[in-house]
Amino acid sequence: MKKFLDLGLQPLANSYILEKNLKMKEKKFRLEIGFNEKNYLVSILNTVSKEKMFNKNYPYKSSESKTMRNSFINLAKKIKRRFNPNFVIEIGSNDGAFIKNFKKDQVVGVEPCKNLALITKRKNFKIYPQFWNIRLAKKITKDKKADLIYSANTLSHIKNFNEIFKAIKYSLSDNGILILEDPSLLECVKKVAYDQFYCEHLYVFSTISLQKILDNFQLEIFDIENISTHGGSNRYYIKKRTNSIHRITRKVKIEVSKETKYGLKNFVTYKKFAKKVSISRIKLLGILKNLKKNKKKVIGYGATAKSCTVLNYCGVDRRLIEYFYDTTSFKINKYLPGSKIKIKKYKKLKKNDVDYVFLGAWNFKDEIFKKEKKFIKQGGKFISHIPYPKIT
Ligand code: TYD
């Protein structure tokens, strides 16, 4: 593994701080990113234990945003049309935004964050509040194998591929389909979205790296969709190599060629990316300091895990961003880790209240701009660091 980026000392991204704990010392770790020249995998070098990150206090809820809700509804429709599965498993089912689109006797969810698992359980879905592993796979699919396994934004959180893919292979019927969805490394590098890296995102996958991993398990990608969620993701359709029903589409070849042409197999590409990241930091600080000098009121929008990386890497605190707005009830009245900027309950933006808004949830830019049409019309401005820091 060759290191190419050092994002400094970072707290755990989703460890929002209660007011009474503000003085307590936070656990920090060094966020460094490396590239494996053998399997093209890009990953963070120091990992934090999964139990520390995914527990009953996990704050992220898929159903929180309209974009995500719609994405799951549309995908469920598409899956039914294309594959018509009888038995579906979702690994990392979060609050059930995907599985709720299936009949209760046709779907099971696996979700180790107990607070989230409970939300789905209350709606009478079959849900296992555990980490996915071979023991659980055997329990769920001993008698009936799955026609389809879906997992979105989960694989990048899991350290031990061996365990995961062995369990997936065991659970999947011979002609079954695995669908994985995760942020795309190509998009991340192109957009200088260095905030895709935080303690939970151990990896940002490319097609070429995923192909190498899957190869070890006799699995292969047969189709790909580029989707806009989480700042530009890929949806990979995967099958057992022995399954000849699903032909490999041209899209796979096209994606591999796009990634190769962009240089995702070469270390030098990542060194260039790291250079752009350090320029991005200088520019963002420049913008924020200048606004502060001119006595403008700047707040943040969307207290994301991604923002945590940006704020801590750039050294932004409440002197530069007064507070953040967020709609997630669990985050409200807490403080962002590291930067200790307060998170307030979201209120529609008004030019009278605020001048500039740092877009922490830049991956929901379209949804947010639509919602804040009036503020923009009144002359309110957003600051985004993607693909480079600017005021829009
Ligand atoms: P998310 O996209 O999950 O980013 P990350 O994985 O980096 O944490 O988080 C989006 C956050 O933005 C979530 O806390 C909800 C918030 N949000 C709003 O406050 N208002 C909105 O209109 C949208 C779309 C999101």
User: Any idea what the CATH architecture of the largest domain is?
Assistant: 3-Layer(aba) Sandwich
Average pLDDT number: 95
Distance between the termini: 38 Å
Strand residues, percent: 15-25%
Whole-angstrom Rg: 21 Å
CATH topology of the largest domain: Rossmann fold
Total discrete domains:
2
Would you count the extended β strands for me?
A: 17
CATH class group of the largest domain: Alpha Beta
Order of helices and strands: EEEHHEEHEHEHEHEHEEHHEHEEEHHEE
Strand order of the largest sheet: 6-5-4-7-8-11-10
Please mark out the parts with pLDDT under 50 across 5 or more consecutive residues, or reply none: none
Tell me, what's the shape?
globular
For the sheet with most strands, the description reads:
7 strands, mixed
Can you identify the CATH superfamily of the largest domain? Vaccinia Virus protein VP39
What ligands does this structure carry?
A: thymidine-5'-diphosphate
Classify the secondary structure makeup into a structural class.
Answer: alpha/beta
